[in-house]
Amino acid sequence: MPKSSDSAATQSATQIADTAPRASCRWFGKFRHCRIALLSLLILNAPSSWAAHPIRPLAQEHVVVGKSPNPATIPLYNPSIVRLDTGRLVASYMVSGKYDRNVKSTTHVLTSDDHGATWQSRHETSIGQTRLFTAADAVYMIGSSSPLYIQRSLDHGANWSDRSAIASGRWHQSATNFIHSKGNVYLALEKRINSEIDAWDPGDLAPVLMRAKTQDDLTKPESWTFSSELAFKDIIPGYRENNLDLDYFGVPFYAQKFPKSNILVRKPFNRNSAPMGWLETNVAQIKDPSHYWHDPTGRTFHLLMRSHTGGTGFANLAKVTENDDGTMTTSLETAPSGKQMLFLSLPGGQMRFHILYDAKTELYWMLGSQATDSMTRAEKLPPDRYSLPNNERHRLVLHFSKNLVDWCFAGLVAKGATASRARHYAAMTIDGDDLAILSRSGDEDARNAHDGNLITFHRVRDFRNLVY
Parallel, antiparallel, or unpaired: how do β-strands 314-322 and 343-345 relate? Predict the structure, then answer.
């Protein structure tokens, strides 16, 4: 394949970078101008296309996996994707009847045997907001429901069992991650403890870590162990009184009006901020023995969640510890000072993100949304912006970290042409040297940035080469 002009420009810049340090040091002798000279050379020799397109998306091109039959009333939600040992990709997404009572919400399951180029429809189910995960030779699909339902495929996603109830209660989730450890599979959902909040209710939710042996039949309730429940609203003193015992870092960003939302703008668009909370939980295990939070027994798991504060840059953090009797206890992590850490700095933590551990690089990779304009007043937002100023959904970005705390920007994965054309709520899986990504997306026909009309497949090639 011939090189594009962009790749030729990159090669030219590399050659300049290789020679410029020696040249600049020769020009300036012992003066401290080497860096300035190098920067000047790069700027003067850079092609004009760099100014127009300073950052190229890693995977802007995509395959449309799902398309709404009526974008105005039938949005598509919750993409999930896994890669099997055979190389097959299994994907799912939900077709929602949220705005059309004549449409029954269903989850669609598809498979691809050519690395995502084409997809074959395999199954439909009434389970909503599903997440795919693997255990031994089976593929499972678990969903948000009351009670909690699960289905299993023993033939690589081609056929599926009937749904089975494995837990009572009201459950919520997004298609976040799962991990394997010590012959077990672990994944986290949220459970509604009760309904105190008369608005969007992440404050009512408690993250629950689930554990099962991979060799067991996970459609049976007895196969699962659930961690203890810790609801967000029960953590911060003064939460219900709207006098939260928090200060100095601007959380919550807007005044809280528990149990209702704080209406910021009524017309022409209703923009409001619900009471604070957490949701859409990822689970991770710290493997570095030098990490402050490393557990040498392997019994501690960390939960990282989208943090609804009204602002940006924070995720929520909790941990789950396995006890000697096999039970699991949810609590807050602590800093070396002894201070509890409910909030963790994390780029894009205000929206749903997906964390994936890569054993080859020994790094955590995170796919999430980039905020660029959270400080515009709510009443000043343009019509194509959805909800609060911190709720941008059209720039999908990739980061990596060695410790779950310090995140390095790896690249812009894909972006919508406008704020209403979303690329967000994406799931990913490792496919050889690449990241295979399924995104909740929208085009010019989308109802808004939240209620998109497309599910799109993207591929970040040679993702490990992004490490620096």
Answer: antiparallel
How far is the C-alpha of 3 from the C-alpha of 9, rounded, in Å?
A: 10
Q: How far is CA 230 from CA 131, 236, 398, in A?
A: 22, 12, 30
CA distance 364 to 288: 12
For 367-411, write each residue's pLDDT tens digit. Answer: 999 999 999 999 999 999 999 999 999 999 999 999 999 999 999
Q: What angle, 0 to 180 degrees and rounded to 10, lies between the N-to-C axes of helices 34-45 and 5-28?
A: 150
What secondary structure letter does DSSP report for 375? T
CA atoms within 13 A on the CB side of 338: 0
Neighbours of 162 (CB within 10 A): 9
State the pLDDT confidence band at 42, using cuts at 50, 70 and 90: very low
**Which residue in 274, 244, 246 sits closest to 258, CA to CA?**
274
Distance CA 383, CA 313 (A): 24
Amino acid letter, 328: M
Q: What is the pTM of this model?
A: 0.89
Numbers of helices and strands, H then E, in the chain? 3, 30
Structure tokens at 210: 């689930």
Strand, helix or coil at 308? Answer: strand
